[in-house]
Amino acid sequence: MNKKNQAAAFFSADRIAALLLLLVVALYGWEGAKLTAALQVDVIGPGFFPKILTAIGVMLGVLLFIRRSPREGDDKNAAKQGSDLVALAPLAFLLAYVLALEPVGFPLATAAFLAITFRYLGHPTWKSALFHAVVITAVVFGLFHFGLDIKLPLGVLAGWA
Amino acid sequence: MGETLPLLLNGFELALRPENLIFAFVGAFLGTVIGVLPGIGPAGALAMLLPIVLNMNPVGAIIMLATLYSGAMYGGSTTSILLNVPGETSSVVTCLDGHQMALQGRAGPALCIAAIGSYIAGTLGVVGLMLFAPLIAGWALNFGPPEYFALMVFGLSAVASLSGDSLVKGLIAMILGLMLATVGTDVTGVARYTFNMPEMLDGVEFLAVTIGLFAISEVLLNTNEMRGGLRQSVIKHKLFISLGEIRESLGAVLRGTFIGFCVGVMPGAGAGIAAFLTYSVETQVSRHPERFGKGEIRGVAAPESANNAASVGAMVPMLTLGVPGSGTTAIMLIALTALNVHPGPLMFTQRADVVWGLIAALYLGNVMLLILNLPLVGIFVRLLYLPMRLLLPVVMVICVIGVYSANQTVLDLVFLCAFGMLGYYMRKHGYPVAPVILGLVLGNRMEEALRQSMIMTQGNLHWLLERPIVVFFLALTLISLTAPLVMRRLRFGGKPVKLEQEES
């Protein structure tokens, strides 16, 4: 086994997760240590519970790091890893969509999000993706905005409504 | 029971009003539709529809939640039988014999016995709930903060240890949930982990976390697996079941109901384990164990009854103690709290109408499913042919609307994306997501119970060992943490039982 493979074996998915967890828990504990009680009578104070959680979190992080990796688990995960990008692209579209929701407005942002995601997930043509997106957006918007009275942002279309 | 019967009748009176019947119907229908859709289990279904439900009046909302829950559970069995695609863990076992029956052209009887078994189990489960819940609620009236604290420690550890494929990963999920719960203003008015953002003072929005972890992550996982190709369904219509087959399965249904209910009451165990356990009991009591796995009708009847009885049983700790034992009941708890109904022992005396209305609604859900599912099964199955590339993005849009409608802030939506990604990672790497939700739901109450216990005893920890009920729950906690080791030894049909994914 060469050096690269050894490193890959040492930093298994679980170990990387363990390090991330320890980082998060450390930041959590650091922030928690700054908390001070607002009331004199409070026996345990606002930082007590976070301290317990920090301690347990550190313990679990260490356990996850040192424990033996599950037998078949790693291979199975490695096989799946290549396809992560397939799933993360829709997540990126989703993030762009929610950030655009208020400035651009629900109708336009939704139609754009749907068209792009449909196409990404294998819709045959842009024209058909856009058509489906517009129709579905209209139905969903009508249903929620008017039917269920859930107010959705109109954004650039605000002047029209 | 003498005093509970009139209360239950009141509940039925409420549930049977025309508008509530419509809610029950819509709930059962939507629940089944979403349950049938691949990849979206009952917890995801409930989370997605929660925002809509919360806009309704409390009684209607509770009825709809109850029927959604049953519908989603039933939808999972339909796909197991017809397509060998279990919608969630609890219907994995149903695939074994159910799909074999479908392949032999007996899909009709398999679906019928699933519906009938679920119906009988649901009915008896409701009776069990009626008998047990007031007893437990009465017992819990004596609980002080130390007992509640110990109970919540037990509930969380049980869910964490039983729901994943590794104890450490389950506990990590739990601790993440508890950490999230500390975000926001605490009871003494100190802002914690808000990073000076006013939107964070109320804490992290439950809906964003729940929908992100359960629904968005499911969508992402599905986009990942989309290239699986179309599944072939088998429906050869011999729709109705014969009396002989019903008679043959009755024993299995009753055993399934009993085991399922008992398992369901325990936090963490839930419908999946109930179904596995019942199936293995059936193979042992049967005179023809060799028929199991080859289309034995009792192999469908038993787990289907068990998972339904377990889902009713799971309501017991949620309603009587306010401590949910699974992801789905945690979402129910969030919903009830949002509707200003606070589950716990006092609810049985103070909001008896709501409790019995809910119980009646659960029962009604079973009836609806029986009426709805048998004739409509052909339509539900056709749902599976909806192109996923259209379905998944639309599900995401509905999730966005749901989260946005709660507070109208984009921050919640950013959390939705973040938790969607976290959920995707967790599910892919064998972390259960249900303990996160449970930790988030219970965290503040746990801290409060701990604080009150410490105040009661002026800051020392003697209370841990001086109170018998506290000791009892802490002992159960120890047992639940060692249970996975025992479970792993349990063998099931020659193969080790693999309890993957969270119990929903």
Task: Give me some keywords for this one.
heterodimer, A: 161 residues, mainly alpha, 2 domains, 7 helices, 71% helix, flat, B: 504 residues, two-stranded antiparallel ribbon, two-stranded antiparallel sheet, 21 helices, 4 strands, 73% helix, 2% strand, globular, disordered C terminus
Portion of residues in beta strands of chain A equals under 5%
Major sheet size, sense and barrel closure of chain A: none
What's the count of strands of chain B?
A: 4
* Helix proportion of chain A: over 70%
Question: Given the structure, what is the number of helices of chain A?
Answer: 7
Domain count of chain B:
1
Outline of chain A, from the CA principal axes? flat
Question: Explain this structure to me?
Answer:
- The complex is a heterodimer of chains A (161) and B (504).
- In chain A, helix 2 (13-33) packs antiparallel against helix 3 (48-66), helix 5 (84-104) runs antiparallel to helix 6 (106-120) and helix 6 (106-120) packs across helix 7.
- Chain A is mostly helical and 161 residues long.
- The radius of gyration of chain A is 24 Å and the shape is flat.
- Chain A has two domains: 1-81; 82-161, no CATH class.
- Chain A is 71% helix and 0% strand.
- Chain B is mainly alpha-helical.
- Chain B has one domain (4-490).
- Chain B is 73% helix and 2% strand.
- Chain B has 21 helices and four strands.
- Chain B starts with a helix and ends in an 8-residue tail after the last strand.
- The model of chain B is unreliable at 227-231 and 491-504 (pLDDT under 50).
- Chains A and B meet through helix 2, helix 3, helix 4, helix 5 and helix 6 of A and helix 8, helix 9, helix 17, helix 18 and helix 19 of B.
In a nutshell, what does this entry contain?
Chain A contains seven helices and no strands. Chain A has 161 residues and is mostly helical.
